[in-house]
Here is the input.
Amino acid sequence: VIPVGIQVCFSGVDMVLTLQPEFTGEAPSPAIALIQGVLQLVGVVVSIFLQLGLTRVFLNAVWGQPISVGMLFSQGHKLLPAVGATILMGLAVMVGFILFIIPGFIVAVGLQFVIYCLVDRDQGVIDALRDSWELTDGHKMVIFFVNIVIGIIGLAFTCVTFGFGYLFIVPILSLVQAVMYQSLRGM
Here is the structure.
């Protein structure tokens, strides 16, 4: 709930800044555009930071180890590598999508466990990218279909509960990702 709340706060401020020019009928001022850009950048970095902590929490849950709220904030030392890995993953997936869509899905599935490799194995960016790719080698189609099925279930549950289900389904979906990572790691 804490990570979702933080993301909602960033989104809410950004939405207010976006709507202001629409209500007044004026073009957004450069100051508002700059504030929006900074807020979006900070939001992405905070999201990556929280994703690192959540990954630690879910890995501990899968391994049957103790979990605490403090774990959400325990992976800060991996923030710069995670930001670098996220940028490289985004570029790789974008290039894949430019190359007729399907390679984009292949790259996205192959690199989906990079953050897990950073947190679990304390790897650098390149090693985490390589390890995630090797981990999914031979399993990409199954992982893709698992992602599709859990995504559809999550979307349906969120819609049926008028959006409130999002608070419950995201941790479950994240736990499924951790279980997939652990089972691939154990193979």
Q: What stands out?
A: The mean pLDDT is 85. The longest helix spans residues 30-63. The radius of gyration is 18 Å.
